[in-house]
Amino acid sequence: MDVPPPASGALAATRRRQHKFFEEHITPLPPTKKPDATRFAIVDIETEAIGHGRGTVEDFILGGYILDDGDAVRYFRSPREWMDILLAPEHRGLKWYAHNGGEFDYKYLLDEFNRALAREAIRVVQVIAQGESRVIGFVLWGDPWVPPTEKKPGHWTRICELRDSYALMPASLDELSKKLAPSLAKLSGTINWDRGERFDPANAQHLAYLERDVLALRAVIQQFRQLVWDHFRCTTGWTAPSTAMRAWRTSLEEKAAFPRLSREQADFIRQAYFGGLVFLTTTAPHAGAKHYDVNSMYPSVMKADGVPGGKAKWVDREFSGRPGFYHCAVEAPESLAFTFVGYRAPHGATWWPTGHFHTWMSTQEIAHARASGYRVKTGTGVVFSEVVYPFQDFLTLCETLRREHRGTAVEFVVKIMQNGLYGKFAQRDDAETLLFAEDPPEDDGQGHWEPVIDARTGALRQYLWHRAERARHPMRMVHWSAWITASARWKLARAVLAVGRAHVYYGDTDSVVGDAVMEQALAEAGDIGSAYGQWKLEKIYRRFQASAPKVYVGEVDDQVVILKAKGIPHKRVTPHQLQLTGEQQQPVVYYAGANSTRSLLSGKKAVFWEDRKRRYSDLQKSSGWQETSGQVFPTKIS
């Protein structure tokens, strides 16, 4: 085999410039020519405490697995046997999928990883995390086929990947099987978990339950991978957002390039990145309330309002006609019809207050706020040359596919793709990195590796270490996410301002609940329909009552009661409790909680299983809202 000659100085310099350009810009991806043919396997386990096992051998009952081309489900009876299966030569290179595996199934392998490291059956265990809170898998690495040197890391043999399919397809296995593999729908009711029935490997029905879950997930993965390639010409990643990013980049024009921010610019603009607008105007019960949602809120504003484009530039005064973000001094009179400018309180909560305060705003928010009665003075800012529309082709394809394949597997997959995209741009530079190792690596100038404390014993776990690290390839496109969420908040606020605060009882990100006057105003504006960005009637409530943001009860009829109580398991929420909440009696809910894999690794919890309690949101104690005779108003900052 011929070896190419070393690159000349000029060629090497060109390659460095190209590499730097791709690091500093988002660029298109070429479509893949074939569907993903990577071999994979499915695994599922049953334990003593369904969904909340402690990760110990004592909890483990039975596991089942099947290869992508296997003809039958095979079983294993211990984590050690499972580890032997992963390391078997015939299984090298496989991607293993378990639904919710990162937070549950794979906990049972942690001790086995350590044993395998000790006997050098594996050399490195790489922990894959999503965001700052969720472990979504592991990669096991073997001996290097190109040894590392002082200057180069070498090339290591990938033994296998353990992936969490929930991160790729964020829905329950029951829903996924109904949408993508209806002939293998989950065998609900086979085991009565709610009454404490234990999985019995000697029970044929229980084995059939485990086997069905394994077969269903295999069919779901196969169908999902195929449909992603059929319609977006890309392969799947670890997560829905990373897959959506690939799908979007394949839709870009060949010469498209979007500059990333500097670290300082990203940190500045991140302060203008608020979430969805959530509010209530009253805690009183209302009859005949109408619940309207915006069809695909974020995709619709991404198409309609675009995002800032071109090179970012620091400014010390306001530049008219240039999209951007500014540090602002805001005066919000109490006479405002409705408040929608965000303020981040000292404890981190987001308020929509009146009074005087400092915050960070996009230029579109500044314009809307001034037109609505706010007084805004701008200071330092970051501006861009223009508004660009990079999502048109991708989201037009998504809308067309959803319209043409309504109610099918195609629509389900497309919805995951479109909804997974926008948040990816807000990724932070720094994240906690977790490491398996016999001893902490030597200091490389990026911070010390700290030992992880074993939450069960309080002792140091010698092979687990953590530290904060800067991403190798930071996203730094938070200006896009901040602009998109600001556009969505204004769409919601504009609807409230058009109809009047008295006719809207509650709102959350992409929906409002109000009376017939609200419905009539939306209809007269021609804003009700099935297209992206239009409003659609979601529900009609016989009785609706909100008691706090993210806490409400809505009676549709005698059989259907919609309950919302953020942070409390749905099965622990009852209409009576929410009725008490509306009467400000604030019941306390007790429920069982278990540590996640990431909690186990970080050692932040003292136990693996605990009784937890959470109080419904108490509007009387809220620092962001005030109630007077059943009417709710934003807090005033003086």
Radius of gyration: 27 Å
Low-pLDDT runs? 1-7, 453-459, 584-598, 603-616
What count of helical segments does DSSP give? 16
Helix-and-strand structural type = alpha+beta
Overall geometric form: globular
Widest β-sheet, arrangement of strands: 4-3-2-5-8-7-6
Mean pLDDT: 84
Residue fraction in strands? 25-35%
Number of E-type strands:
32
DSSP helix fraction: 25-40%
Head-to-tail CA distance between termini: 76 Å
How can the largest sheet be summarized? Answer: 7 strands, mixed
Keywords:
single chain; 638 residues; alpha+beta; 7-stranded antiparallel sheet; 30% strand
Describe the structure in your own words.
With 638 residues, the chain is α+β, with helices and mostly antiparallel strands. The chain has 16 helices and 32 strands. The strands form nine sheets. It has a seven-stranded mixed sheet, sandwiched between helices. A seven-stranded antiparallel sheet has the order 10-23-24-11-25-26-27, with helices on one face. The longest helix has 29 residues, at 204-232. It is globular, with a radius of gyration of 27 Å.
